[in-house]
Design goal:
Blueprint: H1 9-24, H2 26-38, H3 43-61, H4 65-79, H5 83-106, H6 108-118, H7 123-136, H8 140-155, H9 159-183, H10 187-209, H11 211-214, H12 222-225, H13 228-259, H14 264-301, H15 304-340, H16 344-376, H17 380-405, H18 407-436
């Protein structure tokens, strides 16, 4: 019998910290990819890897909803003691993920062409980028399948498995980068092959970590896997999360594009400061995922008290994290800016807008944590609708503030969108608790 006492601070940290450590390895891989091709002494390979990686990441990101949807549904099935459905969810998600990946492979010619049209470059860079993407795209089924495996492990609190997969993939990728590019002289193609091998091996390792699900007959009980009601639920939850994510991405893309209106120096300064937001997001992600897991399991148990305790405990650590992050940005922000750029003009401009980065973690905490809470509860329609309302508020803030105070107005509008997401989801939170009863 599960009790409130088994939801503890230690349990929250056990779920969250492996995710935080896993996230910390992501920028290291990007730096090694860039550094390895940089040893070739030419600008074109660096640009090709940059464009190719961003384009493929954007394509795969479309299916990122599989990670969140699988986590919430798996956590609820686990909390309700439905072991057969837990196994079926892994199969259901993997089938959808692999099919999506093979469709991307089949459509690689138009997709690569579209990516290069979106980010035009010199003929040399485009040729190298095409070679890079032409190799890496064969990892699409694995890259998307890893979303499913990751979500399934998160739903069962097995975030150490997520860390193991990430460390293996990134570590192998780095070793193969060095061997293929510097040792064998394969250039950009070597970087692509290294990533391709790392992705497929990462999926196989992830499935091995999920092997207990494959020991039960439920994973291949096809009537259960394709049960109409569960398929509709899976599709609805993931559709809503996808729409919410597209709107969120649109806000950030509009921020980047609108920042270009204020000149190259301001655009560069904004880009530098956005890295502060990425640091915050990586730090918060672990506790938001802990909320997904523990709130989801509590919803499965149908206990309002457990849902509330899970939300409070994870949010407590989220608040601690943003307080530390904001303090670090206030104390060390100028130094971080200087590390990121050597341009005196960009450094000076970034310092002007640094206070917004000190404020961002604080005003965004509620939005980040409530995202995790609502994903765990699979209240995806509320997430979609409140994101739409927040996007409208963001646009109104832009229209009012940008003409008045320029780039300051752009930053204020972005922070207002964070606040709007927190307030609107907070408004819907009582309904989430009622649904648990």
């Amino acid at each position: 019998m599960k009790t409130l006492q088994d939801l503890t601070h230690r349990r929250v940290l056990t779920v969250a910290l492996p995710v935080v450590l896993s996230n910390a390895t992501v920028p290291i891989l990007g730096a090694v990819d860039t550094g390895v091709v940089g040893q070739l002494g030419l600008a074109a390979p660096i640009g090709a890897v940059g464009i190719g990686a961003i384009a493929l990441t954007a394509i795969y990101w479309i299916f990122g909803f599989l990670r969140m949807g699988t986590a919430g549904l798996t956590a609820q099935a686990s909390g309700a003691g439905r072991k057969g459905e837990v196994s079926a969810l892994l199969s259901r998600g993997m089938i959808i993920g692999l099919v999506a990946g093979f469709i991307i492979m089949a459509l690689q010619v138009p997709l690569i062409w579209l990516a290069l049209q979106t980010a035009p470059a010199s003929s040399e860079v485009e040729s190298l980028a095409q070679s890079y993407m032409g190799i890496r795209i064969y990892g699409a089924p694995a890259a998307i399948g890893i979303y499913v495996v990751t979500g399934w492990l998160i739903g069962l609190e097995r975030t150490r498995g997520v860390l193991i997969v990430q460390l293996w993939m990134n570590g192998l990728n780095i070793v193969l980068d060095l061997w293929f590019v510097l040792g064998l002289g394969w250039g950009v193609e070597g970087v692509a092959i290294a990533t391709l091998i790392a992705e497929w091996s990462g999926l196989l390792l992830g499935l091995w970590l999920c092997r207990d699900a494959l020991k039960t007959p439920a994973w291949k009980d096809w009537p259960r896997v394709f049960e109409r009601a569960q398929m509709i639920l899976f599709a609805r939850v993931n559709r809503d999360i996808l729409l919410r994510s597209v709107m969120l991405q649109a806000i950030f893309l509009s921020f980047v594009f609108l920042g270009a209106r204020f000149g190259d120096v301001t655009l560069a300064a904004n880009h530098v400061l956005l890295q502060f937001l990425e640091i915050t997001a990586f730090s918060m992600d672990g506790f938001a995922i802990a909320a997904e897991t523990l709130v989801g399991q509590s919803m499965g148990v149908r206990s309002v008290a457990r849902v509330r305790r899970a939300a409070v405990l994870t949010s407590f650590w989220g608040l601690i994290t943003v307080l530390c992050t904001a303090t670090a940005f206030a104390l060390f922000g100028p130094w971080i800016i200087d590390v990121m750029t050597t341009s005196p003009e960009v450094r000076a401009e970034a310092r002007v807008y640094l206070p917004y980065m000190v404020a961002a973690p604080l005003v965004g905490c509620a939005a980040w944590m409530l995202d995790g809470i609502f994903i765990g509860a699979t209240r995806s329609a509320d997430m979609r609708n409140m994101m739409a309302l927040s996007a409208v508020i963001y646009v109104i803030a832009l229209l009012i503030l940008m003409p008045m105070v320029g780039n300051h107005g752009l930053w204020l509008a972005l922070l207002i969108s964070f606040i709007a997401r927190g307030i609107t989801l907070g408004w819907k939170y009582p309904a989430l608790e009622r649904a648990a009863g």
